[in-house]
Amino acid sequence: METLFLPMLLLLLALPLFLSVRRQKKQMQEHQQLQNSLQVGDRVMTSTGLYATVVDLSDDETLDLEIADGLVTTWLRQAVTKKIEPVDAEDAEDDEDDEDDDEFEEQDADRSEAEEVATSTEPSSKQ
After folding, report:
1. In DSSP terms, which residues pair with 51 in a beta bridge?
2. What distance in Å separates the CA atoms of residue 85 and residue 34, rounded to the nearest whole number?
3. Distance CA 80, CA 53 (A)
4. Smallest Cα–Cα separation from 61: which of 84, 41, 35, 39?
């Protein structure tokens, strides 16, 4: 029993370390793929939450982002954390309709529950 204790302890300590290194490596690879896929005209979000449009990719370490009409700033490529995909107008309308339907269904369910409780309670008798 004592001979298995040390290997089991090492395994319990090494497993979380291995999994975290693997997860970090995967995130770095995804970030690198994002950096390589950037093109002029892409909408992006920076690590600070700023939404902008890519204007220039000529430098290997930096890129130019247009944050407002005519306002171009230079950022490190690593600051770009997310590529924003354009939303079709039809998809946006469908999503809004679905959300409205869900709200009405929830309200109807709440109302039904309240009615059931009100009808199922018997009037209390006075003593």
Report:
1. 45
2. 13
3. 11
4. 35
Per-position DSSP letters for 62-125, written without gaps between them: EEEEEEETTEEEEEEGGGEEEEEPP--HHHHHHHHHHHHHHHHHHHHHHHHHHHHHHHHSPPPP
At residue 35, the 3 state secondary structure works out as: helix
Check residue 41 and give left, alpha or beta (phi > 0: left; psi -120 to 50: alpha). left
pLDDT digits (tens, 9 = 90+) for 22-66: 999 999 999 999 999 999 999 999 999 999 999 999 888 999 999
DSSP state of 11: H
Q: Residue 18 corresponds to which tokens in the numbers above?
A: 């291995």
CB neighbour class for 26 (10 Å; exposed up to 12, middle 13-18, buried from 19): exposed
Strand 62-68, strand 71-76: pairing: antiparallel
Can you tell me the distance from the alpha carbon of 20 to that of 13, in angstroms, rounded to the nearest whole number?
Answer: 12
